[in-house]
Amino acid sequence: MRPEPLPLVAYFCMEYGLHEELPIYAGGLGVLAGDYIKSAGDLRLPLVAVGLLWRGGYSHQHIGADGQPIDSDDARDVAHLLKPTLKEVSVTVEGREVRCQIWQVDRSGNAPLYLLEPVNEQDRWMTRRLYGGAEHERVIQEMILGIGGVRALRALGLSPDVYHFNEGHAVFAGLELIADQMAAGKSFETAWAEVRSQIVFTTHTPVEAGNESHPLDLLLGLGANRSVRREDMARLGGEPFNMTVAGLRLASRANAVSDLHGDTAREMWRHVGDTAPIVAITNGVHPGTWQDPRIRLALHGGDLWETHRELKEELLHEVERRTRVRLRPDALLVGFARRAAAYKRSDLILRDPSRIGPWLERGDVQLLFSGKCHPQDEAGRMLVANLVQAVRRYPKSAVFLEDYDLRLGRLLTRGCDIWLNNPRRPLEASGTSGMKAAMNGVLNLSVLDGWWPEGCQHGVNGWQIGDGRSEADARVGDDRDLAALYETLAKDVLPAFGDRAHWSRMMRASIEMAQWGFSSHRMVRDYFYSLYRVPAVGQAMAV
Known about the structure:
Elements: E1 9-12, H1 28-42, E2 47-52, E3 60-63, E4 69-72, E5 82-93, E6 96-105, E7 113-118, H2 135-155, E8 162-166, H3 172-183, H4 188-196, E9 199-202, E10 213-214, H5 216-222, H6 230-237, E11 241-242, H7 243-250, E12 253-256, H8 259-268, E13 278-280, H9 287-290, H10 293-299, H11 304-323, E14 332-337, H12 353-362, E15 365-370, H13 378-391, E16 398-401, H14 406-415, E17 418-421, H15 432-439, E18 443-447, H16 452-455, E19 462-465, H17 474-497, H18 500-517, H19 520-531, H20 537-540
Parallel strand pairs: 1-2, 1-8, 2-7, 8-9, 9-12, 12-13, 14-15, 14-17, 15-16, 17-18, 18-19
Antiparallel strand pairs: 3-4, 5-6, 6-7, 10-11
Helix pairs in contact: 1-19, 2-3, 3-4, 11-14, 14-15, 15-18
């Protein structure tokens, strides 16, 4: 019996992290999307991706003498990475037609990625900077992504079977599909039902305030709704219009990005009626991008510890080049690189100088931090500044690396000894940087949040911090987790680091766990099987 053909999937996302030379990403969401379409390309699956061409990128972010982050333009010449499709579409914005050209990213290997950009120079502000500008600018960007994206696929002669919205930024694509059905004479109810059967939705952030919403008057004034009436818009997203709620109501199937996040998301949105059921599909990372080839070779017959020492030395050389600080190669190197958000607690390990201070002053432990905040996020800017100030108390053993990007991410997740992750549980949806580290034998030391409850074998392939309890009082939870962090470092991590044979065994266990269970190849297969509902998918994708 011949397997049924796979569906053509159209994947919509606001950002894509393919390579640092193409700065159309801000953080984890974009890097995940980049890994997703890389694996879809590797596995030769029928998927096309849609996004926006951000000429201004996201931001370069450096640290001033006062410790404050300073942002500068990230615009780069990316013409050599693009090829024109010679196709255009128009999106009506405030009653005016905005013509957009369709570019294709000229990069072999990944699934096709098409990017939209206004044709006329006077309209280029609309897609100049990722996540920049005021609220009305964000809505216009999402209109171009969603409405323009659907029209772009048609202009390219593509007829997707499934539309996958990665986060709420793309929900205007669902409104465009409904409006098309209504233009053919169908009622809103009928159009919604038919379109819903084609849409799947992925929700990421478990922080309710981080789920974007806009006044309906703003959406109607800009023309995001086309022929969908105000009352029907409110049925989809509420008033104000919540993009995640709309995504859940537009989709027939939805997913969270780890098992624990699935529980969190179902509880978080249980009060919202008429939404898609939320299943869990745990994220993964692209092995070809994130696992160093030397680690792969060492796993199958080489010396893992010596290979790791080589990668660690490359990281230390980069640290010295950037900061003139020479860290010791024989001391435990703990890495932490995250977006600046309060729940991630980037400074947690530094909060009790009486405990961490002696380790740092003796050089038993060395700390490497990196990460960015949104240029307009004052709370995030304060977090970065406070972390930099704390790090400067230990100039010989603690370093903050500025201007975090994909290249630095690769160096850190290959060269550190320990990858630290200490969010307030259960606010970490997945945490893919830990998967990247694990895939290189960098051992995770993490709160049981995101993906880590699925991967952790305490003392075998890494360590857990605490007992996995959540705490309603943030201060109580912070104190408890800080004590557990210091205890695990003292009783488990540092003694293990002194036993090279044991550490090498743990590295091997970490790599084997990550490269099979937490690769984006596994993730993409799970999406095709569980979310896109492809019969006989195991047979069709036996790669």
